[in-house]
């Protein structure tokens, strides 16, 4: 059985929503449904990630999104930094994971480590 979606509370809903809109755009992930208090991000109408205001915020999470290619990983990283995220690993190969693991990491406004990764065949 596969993973369907994840959701969590954020400190500042509007700031986090705007951050994720910019961060996930290079991965073709955008808002598929939204209210005044939460937003659901996904692709092709299927939700992958929801964020909302209120409620207890979790400790730092690690979220990894699959990218279509290296260019999308690079664009994700640049978009995250431009949106105010902190660098947590520039785009590049991570051979300690596996030889074709190309990824980048950005820390979001709530301290979560968000990754874009493409699994290339070595």
Write the layout of secondary structure elements.
Layout: E1 6-9, H1 13-24, E2 30-34, E3 38-43, E4 46-52, E5 62-66, H2 70-82, E6 86-93, E7 101-107, E8 113-119
Parallel strand pairs: 1-4, 5-8
Antiparallel strand pairs: 2-3, 3-4, 6-7, 7-8
Organism: Kaistia geumhonensis
Protein name: Catechol 2,3-dioxygenase-like lactoylglutathione lyase family enzyme
InterPro entries: Glyas_Bleomycin-R_OHBP_Dase (IPR029068), Glyas_Fos-R_dOase_dom (IPR004360), VOC_core (IPR037523)
Describe this structure in words.
The protein is an alpha/beta fold and 122 residues long. The chain has a single domain (6-52, 60-119), classed as Roll (2,3-Dihydroxybiphenyl 1,2-Dioxygenase, domain 1). It contains 2 helices and 8 strands, in the order βαββββαβββ. It has helices at residues 13-24, 70-82, and strands at residues 6-9, 30-34, 38-43, 46-52, 62-66, 86-93, 101-107, 113-119. The strands form 2 sheets. Strands 1-4-3-2 form a 4-stranded mixed beta sheet, covered by helices on one side. It has a 4-stranded mixed beta sheet with strand order 5-8-7-6, covered by helices on one side. β3 and β4 (46-52) form a beta hairpin. α1 packs antiparallel against α2. The protein is globular and about 45 Å long. The mean pLDDT is 95.
